Amino acid sequence: MTHNTRGRRSGGRAGKRTRTVVKPPPYIQRKLPHFNPLDEEQLVKVEQQVDWLFENIGFAFRDDPEAIRIWRQAGVDIKGDKIFADAQWVREQCSKAPKQFTQLARNPERSVTIGGNHQVFAPIYGAPFVRDFEQGRRYATFADFEKLLKLTHMHPNLHHSGLVIAEPTDIPVSKRHLDMVLAHMTLNDKPHLGAITEKSRAQDSVDMAEILHGKDTMDSHVVIMANVNTNSPLLIDRVVTEAIQVYSSRGQAMVVTPFILTGAMGPVSTAAAVSQAMAEAMICCAFTQLVKPGAPFVMGNFLSSMSLKSGAPTFGMPEPVVSNYVIGQLARRAGLPLRCGGSLTASKIEDAQAAYESADSMHSTALAGSHFTLHAAGWLEGGLTTGFEKLVMDADRLGSYQKILNGLDVDTDQFARDAYREVEPGGHFLGSAHTLRHYEHAFYEASLSDAENVENWEDNGSKDMRQRAHSRWKHMLENYEKPAIDPAIEEALNDYVDRRKSALPDAWY
What we know:
By secondary structure, the protein is of the alpha/beta class. Helix content is 43%, strand content 14%.
């Protein structure tokens, strides 16, 4: 039996209307209260563990004599390359970092605010492989990178373009950062990150940002950020400290993220791992403030569980979900913007495992209050692979958080009293004036979801979401238009890249 009640009841039926595309904001401005799972006693216990690590265990700052010199000048206790610091002093240093800041995009309409009640989504970062429905899994090329960047630029639910959406393995390591940063600056007009893997690469990124935005703007605003991982457990190597010296000294923002697989780079207990992540990030924040007081800093947390049988990382599991909630609560108490979570999965393709794991991971990330979320779209295979279909599938779902995090609208019109007066008992609201007023944006519509009846679905080829996503990103690329840029600035950027490439030998490590 087919049930079809459309147009059957009194009250009329809304005529076919053309929906107006509502332009989404450049980032989410949250109204929904945060979820705070720990009470005051529990919070104090975690913070006491963080302080104990500062004062009794210490952190190795390795292979960077300048970092040790900076610490020594600050008067902390140094034993070899290990730093021991008074916990209250560390917290005082961290309090100098702003609670929120704005990163300017070259398109002012796409600048983002990070911190406070604002949330910013960026794509996957760092995968050496890509996968799509037609070609399968393969090493990423610069052509793949450009396509993924264009998709990120075009998708309204991704607010920030990150940097290494996929690692272009067909360009020498010594030079690929130049091509990637240039592409972000010219093919895209959203905010982006700079390189960090070696000090000169970080400097190239900062120099190119100055060309793009101008020295005066860069001296007074954040125009570029950088994301770097500590070498957990308790090791901060020169990649971190040199990146901080380059970016923070220019007043640009650093995101420092402990990458902790519990049971390997941290204890198996979530409480200990969360405390370690807080301590590693906060000691790096203190270092940024020694380099330049007031330099913007984002406290990162990437905490994942693992299989204790195989050693493989697992994602979307209950322990990292809880850690997201807790780290959000601790970051707010520390007064620091937060980066955590994302649409994470260990699955190799866009299957049910990927959907479940990514949904649990991203939902907890959003509710936890992550201000800057890398890996919000495109992540497959534990971060080894960027999925073309996964990127647009994840980004499609990210739009729902604009509604969820906005909470419940209780303005007078939302109670629809005029509609109750208009519609008779047993009627329907489809043709009511209230429905017509709100028709264009009453509900979030996930463009890749199919809610049609089975007959229509079969008539359209019985496509699953992977197939629909494949068609979607192909169509998007066909309609890509390069955002306008001042030709003189683009020429200056190209000249810089050409000069630097000619001065650098090819190196594949």
